[in-house]
Every structure is written in structure tokens, then in C-alpha cells.
Specification:
The chain is α+β, with helices and mostly antiparallel strands. It is 28% helix and 26% strand. The strands form two sheets. Strands 2-3-4-5-7 form a five-stranded antiparallel β-sheet, with helices on one face. It has a four-stranded antiparallel β-sheet with strand order 1-9-8-6. The longest helix is centred in the first third of the chain and has 18 residues. 38% of the residues are buried.
Length: 282
């Protein structure tokens, strides 16, 4: 039995998160995904849409198209390229800014999962730096908190807090990504659909899977709040929301406000999936 057992998204600032999670079921195939919209590099957060950044709009549109394909059991990279071409056309009819440095990009991971003969087969499609990990846990009970702690969020900073030479570098990089040069991310360029790294995986029961965005991965990759080998057990014991809360506590206590070379904090999102014997709890 394949079951989604945990799901959390959190914005790092006062604007809507640019991370999106999704899932779709078609017959015996479950498809799940995480999308991380690239940091907005304009002076104002909302330049095209009244209530979201261009990056969040792109992530939403990608999620909607992936959901449609997955629900029909027809996800394929050529179809994703066609979807991006449609998204590009829709976007360019809406924007009134010149240049390509403000055009949105995204990291993404998509996992197509199917149970066959008591094994879990996964087709994994990865773009840029979203993560996918797996492990086992021997928990008899799972008491995970699903709600994030309430807290005030810092105001969004122009250009996501980047300034000076670093901002110039990032804007130049965005133009390269829109030309699909030296990049593994998704962009408005339909060719970016083929930047995918594809991996086939097989697992026995019980297996726990975790996928998400690099804002969540900061917990072990950047802040060293726990070793990577302990992440699966931590999330099983305490939940994704607890991990995000600990990230935010660390950022509040340790990170300054005046570093224009790196993003002080990032949106975070993650999803936990369990593959267990039928009739067993997770």
C-alpha cells in the first residue's frame, strides 16, 4: 500500500510561497511532485499578477499541467515540453517588461510510483536541486504534527534580498537559463523539459520516501541541524512541520539581515510517502 502520510509548505516571508507540492492518482499509479520557483529578482514582488509572484504563477502552472498528465497516466517529457510552450505563450501575452532576466524558472522533482508484485517501482524525474530520499523506520506509532507553529514572517525584500554584483550575476544567470544554457532547471524554454535526470528505483516494504525543495534541505545541507541519515526517522517521529519550525528558529537566531550574496531564508516544502504491507499503519 502506498500512502501520503505527511505534507507541509511554508513561506519564508510575507508573500505567498514559491514552492508547490502536488499529487495525482491514475489507476494503481501515484504521482507526486515538488516544485521550487526560482527567487524573484524584480524590485516589487507582484509585477504581473496582483497576488503572487511570476515565479509562483509558473510553479502553479507547471503543477497544474503535471497534474493533468499524471491523472491521465500520460506523463512524458515531450508532453511536458508542449505544456511549457503553452505556459510560455500565456505568460508572454501578460507581461509588459522587456528582457528575459525576470522570466521565471523552477527546480522540480516528479516521482511516478507503482506497486507491482509487492514491490514499489519508481520512475524519478529531477530538474535542478529539489531532493528525493528514502529509508526505513521501525515506528509502531506515528504522532506527527501537521500544523506549523504560528509566527510572524519578515517582510519580503526587493529582489529577494539580493543586491549589487550578486544580483547582476543572478539576472545574467536567468537569461542563460531562458536560453537553456548550462542549466538543469525548468524555464519558459520548452527545451528545458529535456534537462531531466531520470532514475528508476525499486523498493521492498516497508519504505519511507521524502521529497521536497531545497528550503527544507537546508536543515541538513546548510544548517547541520541533523545528519542526512537521520532525516527519515526525524520526520517519521515529529513530522515535516516540526522540521520546518526548527529551520525557522535557527534562521531567526543565527542569520543576519545584511547578507546580499545569499538568500537569508527560503520557502520550504516537503512530502512524506510510506510503502507498507496492506493493513499496516504508518
Amino acid at each position: 500500500m502506498i500512502r501520503i502520510t505527511g505534507w507541509a509548505e511554508d513561506a519564508c516571508s510575507s508573500i505567498p510561497s514559491e514552492d508547490v507540492l502536488g499529487s495525482a492518482l491514475h489507476e494503481n499509479k501515484l504521482t507526486v511532485w515538488a516544485i521550487d520557483g526560482g527567487s524573484t529578482l524584480t524590485e516589487a514582488a507582484f509585477t504581473t499578477f496582483p497576488d503572487k509572484t511570476d515565479s509562483r504563477w509558473f510553479a502553479d502552472e507547471l503543477s497544474r499541467r503535471i497534474s493533468m498528465m499524471a491523472a491521465e497516466g500520460s506523463f512524458a517529457l515531450p508532453l511536458l515540453a508542449d505544456a511549457i510552450a503553452d505556459i510560455r505563450h500565456a505568460y508572454l501575452t501578460l507581461v509588459d517588461k522587456s528582457g528575459r532576466w525576470f522570466h521565471p524558472v523552477a527546480a522540480c522533482v516528479i516521482a511516478e510510483m507503482r506497486e507491482i508484485d509487492d514491490r514499489l517501482e519508481i520512475s524519478l524525474h529531477s530538474f535542478a536541486d529539489c531532493f528525493f530520499m528514502w529509508g526505513t523506520t521501525q515506528l509502531k506509532h506515528n504522532h506527527t504534527r501537521t500544523q506549523l507553529s504560528s509566527r510572524s514572517r519578515s517582510a519580503w525584500k526587493a529582489c529577494s534580498g539580493f543586491r549589487g554584483k550578486r544580483l547582476e550575476q543572478l539576472r545574467k544567470r536567468r537569461e542563460e537559463q531562458q536560453r537553456n544554457e548550462k542549466t538543469s532547471a525548468l524555464s519558459l524554454n520548452p527545451k528545458s523539459a529535456f534537462n531531466c535526470v531520470e532514475t528508476n528505483l525499486n523498493f521492498d516494504r516497508p519504505t519511507t520516501l521524502l521529497l521536497g525543495t531545497d528550503g527544507l534541505a537546508r536543515a541538513w545541507q546548510r544548517y547541520a541541524l541533523l545528519p542526512e541519515c537521520e532525516v527519515i526517522d526525524f520526520v517519521a517521529h515529529y513530522g515535516i512541520s516540526e522540521l520546518i519550525d526548527r529551520i525557522r528558529e535557527y534562521e531567526a537566531d543565527h542569520l543576519g539581515e545584511d547578507d546580499f550574496t545569499e538568500k537569508r531564508a527560503d520557502d520550504a516544502a516537503g512530502m512524506r510517502i510510506c510503502f507498507v504491507p496492506h493493513g499496516k499503519s504508518t
